[in-house]
Amino acid sequence: FFFSSRRRHTRCSGVSWARRCVQETDLKLLPTLYVGNVDAQIKDQDIISYFSQYGKVASFKPLKLSDDGTKSYLVSYSSATEANQAQNVTDHTKILTNSKPVRVYWKKSRRDFKTEANLFLTNIDMEITEKELE
């Protein structure tokens, strides 16, 4: 078992480096969703339970708290079919009845985002939802 990437080999050094490398590689290949705009009142277990309804959650990672007090997560599934169903059903839904709707996207690398692609809107009617703007 050999990795040609020197960086990966260095990062996975140690007694069980091959096992760790396989695990890291496998996690990167799992279909992963970014779940954002999660109210601070929602606990990690609530997220796991909510997204487990749509398939086997293979990996779960809380991300840092944002400036506006909302949380975000990475949720990985065992199959792309399960992840796709979860994304289609859960985007713009409330995890708890008194929480705000969450945003669910396929995870992308930071380099996939273009900074010049931002759009700023003003004077929008407060009755318009995020889903309608999308």
For the termini, the CA-CA separation is: 46 Å
Give the overall pLDDT as a whole number.
76
Major pleated sheet: 4 strands, antiparallel
Rg from C-alpha positions? Answer: 18 Å
Number of helices: 5
Name the helix and strand elements from N-terminus to C-terminus, one letter apiece. HHEHEEHEH
State the helicity in percent bands: 25-40%
How many extended strands? 4
List unreliable stretches of 5+ residues: 1-25
Strand content: 15-25%
The coarse overall form would be: globular
- By secondary-structure content and strand pairing, the structural class works out as alpha+beta
Describe the model:
This protein has helices spanning 6-11, 17-29, 44-52, 80-90, 130-133, and strands at residues 32-38, 57-62, 71-77, 103-106. It is α+β, with helices and mostly antiparallel strands and 134 residues long. The chain has a 4-stranded antiparallel sheet. A hairpin with an 8-residue loop joins strand 2 (57-62) and strand 3. The protein is globular, with a radius of gyration of 18 Å.
Provide tags for this entry.
5 helices, globular, 4-stranded antiparallel sheet, 4 strands, 134 residues, alpha+beta, single chain
Show the helix and strand layout.
Blueprint: H1 6-11, H2 17-29, E1 32-38, H3 44-52, E2 57-62, E3 71-77, H4 80-90, E4 103-106, H5 130-133
Antiparallel strand pairs: 1-3, 1-4, 2-3
In short:
It contains 5 helices and 4 strands. With 134 residues, it is α+β, with helices and mostly antiparallel strands. The longest helix has 13 residues, at 17-29.
